[in-house]
Design brief:
The structure is a single chain. The chain contains 13 helices and 13 strands. The protein has 343 residues and is an alpha/beta fold. The protein has a seven-stranded parallel sheet with strand order 3-2-1-4-5-6-11, sandwiched between helices. It has a two-stranded parallel sheet with strand order 7-10. The protein has a two-stranded parallel ribbon with strand order 8-13. Thymidine-5'-diphospho-beta-D-xylose (TDX) binds next to α7 and β8.
Length: 343
């Protein structure tokens, strides 16, 4: 079988490429990635010399290039990870989010129709459900929760999900969608909460916590997410949506304190800064459906996963230091400079 993985040079996509190569060596993996600021070919270096892996640099919005690749590879399955994925960037510049996340999805699905793929899988997010109040711990997102988005990022992901459902109903495209909670683990770009705090703590730089740090996220180790997608593309039912989460809710401030403790750094580095605009309060997934229908359960406890993640960042300083020394510093100054000066 040939599986086309888009966005495979990013955080979750790369972890998925490695899982597939390891678990299904009989399959061929083709990765299409534009290598935006978030994509890094170095992340895929151990895959590049495998005979059943091919990397293609390209944009999912480029219709001619996408159709040419489908003509050449005739993929059986498409898994779309390619996206602009950072909420803060979507607040600064929504346009590229709409283009990549919605129009790119359309191009991939048009090619999937034309070349009659057996499965088109869309990697979505729990953020499409909006947020939950902190004082209702009994509430969780199910697959039936209405879409109600807060940021340009989550709106673009919700728009893509609606389009996927339309292509299934109107054109009979064999689709599935997964909506996952916050991932953490190796190869996450250091603009996201956990790797940013690890990198800053190691350099003894301020740890910028938005608002009071009381927002809650439901953390899932990236490998567990990838295993769920592997199950969905092989055993999931066409037309279905599957929520993926680990019932591991934590306040941001508690995560940051754990990182300080693990790295033996003082909590005085914690700096409360101006809140994110439209900041979602709480995400919490009910993963009962994927457990019941496909037997999936998360395998990594947060206490272990965070230790493995911190160790990975300590062992791979070259990987993230190259990132934080380049263009990223410009982003960092724009996003945090004024906020930290005001704090
Ligand atoms: P990421 O930002 O680390 O990686 C995105 C990848 O997509 C990069 O390699 C980038 O180069 C590539 N890309 C961007 N635009 C492209 C384009 N036009 N054409 C081809 N490639 C392009 O993102 P991630 O955190 O790995 O997220 C992957 C997917 O999972 C996204 O769709 C995201 O919405 C979703 N998701 C992420 C999380 C999370 O916690 N990170 C949680 C739930 C869902
Ligand atoms: O510097 C920071 N300080 C801070 O307090 C950063 C970067 C984040 N935060 C807070 C904001 C959030 O409440 O930490 C929480 C997590 O932030 P992010 O890592 O930016 O993730 P989030 O906004 O929750 O979105 C993530 O999960 C869902 C991914 O980036 C999305 O791609 C995914 O869909």
């Amino acid at each position: 079988m040939t599986i086309l993985v888009t966005g495979g040079a990013g955080f979750i996509g790369a972890n998925f490429v490695y899982l597939e190569l390891d678990k299904h060596p009989e399959d061929r993996i083709v990765c299409l990635d534009k290598l935006t600021y978030a994509g890094n070919l170095e992340t895929l270096k151990e895959a590049l010399d495998k005979p059943n892996f091919r990397f293609v640099k390209g944009d999912i919005c480029d219709r001619d290039a996408v159709f040419a690749l489908f003509e050449e590879e005739k993929p059986d399955i498409v898994v779309n990870f390619a996206a602009e994925s950072h909420v803060d960037r979507s607040i600064e510049d929504p346009g590229i989010f709409l283009k990549t996340n919605i129009l790119g999805t359309q191009v991939l699905m048009d090619a999937s129709r034309e070349y009659k793929v057996k499965r088109y899988h869309q990697v979505s997010t729990d953020e499409v459900y909006g947020d939950l109040p902190l004082d209702r711990p009994d509430l969780f997102f199910t697959e039936e929760t209405p879409l109600k988005t807060s940021s340009p990022y989550s709106s673009s992901k919700a728009g893509a999900d609606l389009l996927v459902n339309a292509y299934h109903r109107t054109f009979d495209l064999p689709t599935t969608i997964s909506r996952c909670s916050n991932n953490y683990g190796p190869y996450q770009f250091p603009e996201k909460l956990i790797p940013l705090m690890i990198a800053n703590a190691l350099d003894e730089k301020p740890l910028p916590v938005y608002g009071q740090g009381l927002n809650v996220r439901d953390w899932l180790y990236v490998e567990d997410h990838c295993k769920a997608i592997d199950l969905i593309i092989r055993k999931g039912e066409v037309g279905q949506v599957y929520n993926i989460g680990g019932h591991n809710e934590m306040k941001n401030i508690d995560i940051v304190k754990i990182i300080c403790q693990e790295l033996d750094k003082p909590e005085s580095l914690i700096t409360y800064v101006t809140d994110r605009k439209g900041h979602d309060m709480r995400y919490a997934i009910d993963p009962a459906k994927i457990h019941r229908d496909l037997g999936w359960l998360p395998e990594t406890m947060f206490a272990d996963g965070i230790k493995m993640t911190i160790k990975w960042y300590l062992d791979h300083k070259d990987w993230w230091q190259r990132i934080v020394s380049g263009d990223y510093m410009k982003y960092y100054e724009e996003m945090y400079g004024e906020r930290l000066r005001q704090a």
